[in-house]
Amino acid sequence: MRNTRPSFAEGKQECAAIGKAAAPCEKPGGKEGRASVGNRRIRQCWFALRHGAEVLRDLDFRLAKGGFYFLTGPSGAGKTSLLQLLYLARRPTRGRIQLFDQDLTDAPRDVLPDFRRRIGVVFQDFRLIRHLSAFDNVALPLRIAGRSDAEVEGPVREMLAWVGLADRASARPPTLSGGEQQRVAIARAVISQPELLVADEPTGNVDADMATRLLHLFTALNRLGTTIVVATHDVSLIARTPGARLMRLEKGSMADPTGILRNPPTEVRGR
């Protein structure tokens, strides 16, 4: 993490104070698409194929640095595929992707891990490491970044307490409920204060009170400068997040009637 950023604890205090605790895309026979995540903003435009059929098409949008976005749409609209492209798990079949001032569309696979470490991901199926405890799953990003045990202990304990799992730190994923696993996955995704957080239905397995608490956690992280993209069907989350923008996928295409996704502010201010 960069020393210029506030501590996560400061972000949590801020959170508690508010509520406790791009060029045209390539088309068949058309122009080349372009997507970028630069120093001050994210511009993204992707295409993907699944079993020979287009899942995402004609996408052209930018995300302001420090923005909070909810990605919505009916089942099968392509939300998960879009998130996979965003966290570099897949490549576009047409168009360009730029992240962190780099065009990564054709980047060699061996350079991608460095960029992925700047992205936090909450998977819909959790993807916890079964033989590691909840503590060690959450600590994994910090250890990969080279943190010592002394530097890991406090933040991980604090994060587990924040998501209500202080007493489950030594439990392994097979012994945790679905909701508990989801909270571990969220804690792991945010522990390193990523520059970009991508979450696929992060509150789908928790009760309303915990969903609110997790939303506060995302809000705190966003206030520290992280760009947040949350795919969800829960309209109540959207209603409880003032200032968040709505992205809607319909049959693989992005609805943007006002043009705000194509031309957002360079950076979200006033946090």
H and E string: HEEEEEEHEEHEHHHEHEHEE
Rg, nearest Å: 18 Å
The CATH H-level superfamily of the domain at 8-19 and 65-90 and 107-249 is: P-loop containing nucleotide triphosphate hydrolases
Which sequence of strands runs across the widest sheet?
9-10-11-6-12-13
The main β sheet shows up as: 6 strands, mixed
**At the first level of CATH, what is the class of the domain at 8-19 and 65-90 and 107-249?**
Alpha Beta
In whole angstroms, the N-to-C terminal distance is 19 Å
Number of helices: 8
SS-based class: alpha/beta
Number of strands: 13
List the helices and strands and how they pair.
Blueprint: H1 8-19, E1 36-37, E2 41-44, E3 48-50, E4 53-56, E5 61-64, E6 68-72, H2 79-86, E7 98-99, E8 102-103, H3 112-116, E9 119-122, H4 134-144, H5 149-162, H6 178-190, E10 196-200, H7 208-223, E11 227-231, H8 235-239, E12 245-250, E13 253-255
Parallel strand pairs: 6-11, 6-12, 9-10, 10-11
Antiparallel strand pairs: 1-2, 2-5, 3-4, 7-8, 12-13
Helix pairs in contact: 1-7, 4-5, 4-6
Summed up:
With 271 residues, the protein is of the alpha/beta class. 31% of the residues lie in helices and 18% in strands.
Structure description:
This protein is α/β, with parallel strands linked by helices. Helix content is 31%, strand content 18%. The protein contains eight helices and 13 strands. The strands form four sheets. The chain has a six-stranded mixed β-sheet, with helices on both faces. Strands 1-2-5 form a three-stranded antiparallel β-sheet, with no helix packed on it. It has a two-stranded antiparallel ribbon with strand order 3-4.
